[in-house]
Amino acid sequence: MKVAKNILLLILIQNFLYANDANKDSDMDGVPNSSDVCTHTPFLDVVDKRGCSTERLVLPEDKESNSLDIIFGLGQAQNEDELNREKQHISTFQAYYYNNDWIYSLKTGYFTQPAESNMEDTTLSIRKRFQVSKKLKLTTGVGLKLPTYDFEGNKADYLLTGAFNYYPTNKVSLYFGGSYDFLQDEEVFTPLQNVHTLYVGTGYFLNKTLYGHVSYSNSNSKFVEEHNIQIVSATLFYQINPKWFTSLSYHHEIADEDLHNNINIKLGYSVW
Length: 272
Fold this sequence. Notes:
Structural class: mainly beta
CATH topology of the largest domain: Porin
CATH architecture of the largest domain: Beta Barrel
Strand order of the largest sheet: 1-2-3-5-6-7-8-9-10-11-12-13
Number of domains: 2
Strand content: over 45%
Number of strands: 13
Largest sheet: 12 strands, antiparallel, barrel
CATH superfamily of the largest domain: monomeric porin ompg
Shape: elongated
Order of helices and strands: HEEEEEEEEEEEEE
């Protein structure tokens, strides 16, 4: 009975202190209504700076201010229509810095195969997140693809990206987006063209540490005479602890006579 009286007293004090509408906090989560995106958060939930529950797994792309992630990956790709280059082993490095609603990233890699070993192109990008509504988020960005892949005619490319993420429930995510690559490479062997990619997917938060998603993407080849590239992908993301996380992905190219697929595993560390 005494505990109930104390709780009632705290509620009365809360309402008195925040009687001013500008500072009113209806769901008593510590975020004023004027800044609260999720205005009916359950009383015991932990919330982020927007007043939304963080009880579900927070994915890297949803992280907030001042967070730096370093990610290393290993993978293997198989492409049966390239003679002496059928199997390819890939090592990747990625770095992401999250500063409020801005995301800065660097991606690069190195591959080995029977015919050659070389670096992949290195991509630098800047993206901005917009919280359109409680359940809908828009991300847009620009990028620069540096020609670190040593190949005749390879030049720096420019990228535009955009994506929508929608969370109809606390467990389900839906997303779609695309990118446009303004190709600057020289036409050494065959005519080239700009590359546009569209993708759509859905994900499910299995619990507070595990998330899985599947997606489909369609993009044209940079070689004018080649067919479009259609890929189905499946990924599992696991939060080991607050500092470490990992993911396992499989990608398979469809609508092709030859086998094109790859599998990779990544290990990430949140520096802060």
